[in-house]
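Hi V.,

Quick status before I head out on leave. The structure for the redesign project is tokenized and pasted below; the design run finished overnight.
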């Protein structure tokens, strides 16, 4: 099965790949990475049980893989996992 990658959004993980490949990130891309890392740490630290942690971790991984990085440009608009 072939996927048309032109229709997929640029994700947080795409930006991380770009960064580790030594490519320059825009200010917007850097902001999204910082916000994502802050969101991830805050959300995981707020979990109350191992089961909640595992579920939140899984959701955050999916967000990093599938969501547009633009979702992480405004910390005020982020919803909890």
């Amino acid at each position: 099965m072939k996927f048309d990658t032109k229709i997929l959004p640029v994700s947080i993980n795409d930006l991380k790949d770009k960064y580790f490949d030594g490519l320059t990130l825009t200010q917007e891309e850097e902001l999204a990475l910082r916000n994502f890392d802050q969101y991830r740490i805050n959300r995981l630290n707020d979990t109350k049980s191992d089961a909640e942690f595992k579920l939140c971790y899984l959701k955050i991984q999916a967000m990093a893989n599938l969501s547009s990085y633009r979702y992480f440009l405004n910390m005020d608009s982020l919803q909890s996992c």
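Above is the designed sequence. Residues 9 and 68 are 5 Å apart (CA to CA).

G. will cover questions while I'm gone.

Best,
W.
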